[in-house]
Design brief:
The protein is of the alpha/beta class. The chain is built from 8 helices and 5 strands, in the order E-H-E-H-H-E-H-H-E-H-H-E-H.
Length: 204
């Protein structure tokens, strides 16, 4: 079984991945943030490094999904390959930070990869307001994220909502992080787990 967690920057994907992996004894797969050689450069000079960053994420995520498909373990993944192609790359293109040539090249590569990967059995989308996302970004204190603008986060949120509204690749569970604090509140975490149980019981 393959579960994936989607959501904007600061939504709590990594934390929820860790909590659910521990609870269900699933194998976690995380986004390569600390090992990403382009993030610092990207946030300081987005136009120069957008294509490099997106290719790194796409390559890493594609490799990760292929490994998931080969394993016989129940796995939980921090962010999906679809978010790169449906949200982040189109957003950079729309903002003029990714050229038409680079975006076409990127999209063509993703189309080839998508034919070789299976979607998750359950997608968990962490929905949050800009206020909540900004609060959590500041709380975790990553230096390279201090320059993220409200406009950038807002654009991503709009694209996430549009993507989720049309998501049809499998089961979808939406968690509202404005009202559920699964990090600090055990009752909220139990509520999330209860909703996930209801979804995955139908997968077997």
């Amino acid at each position: 079984m393959h579960i994936a967690i989607a959501g904007n920057i600061g939504a709590g994907k990594t934390t929820l991945t860790e909590l659910l992996a521990k609870h269900y004894k699933w194998t976690p797969h995380f986004e390569s943030v600390d090992e990403n050689p382009y993030l610092d450069d990207f946030y300081s000079e987005m136009e120069r490094w957008s294509f490099n960053l997106q290719i790194f994420f796409l390559n890493n995520r594609f490799r990760q999904v292929l490994e998931l498909q080969k394993s016989n373990k129940n796995t939980i993944q921090d962010r999906t390959i679809y978010e790169d192609a449906s949200i982040f790359a189109p957003n950079l293109h729309a903002m003029g930070l990714l050229t038409n040539r680079d975006f076409t090249n990127y999209s063509s590569l993703f189309d080839l990869m998508e034919n070789l990967v299976n979607p998750p059995d359950l997608l968990i989308y962490l929905r949050g307001s800009i206020e909540t996302l900004v609060g959590q970004i500041h709380k975790r204190g990553r230096d390279y994220e201090t320059s993220i603008s409200i406009d950038y986060l807002s654009r991503l949120n709009e694209r996430y909502e549009a993507w989720v509204s049309k998501y049809d690749k499998g089961k979808l569970l939406i968690i509202d992080i404005d009202t559920l604090n699964f990090v600090d509140n055990q009752e909220d975490l139990a509520s999330v787990i209860e909703r996930i149980d209801a979804q995955i019981n139908g997968l077997f």
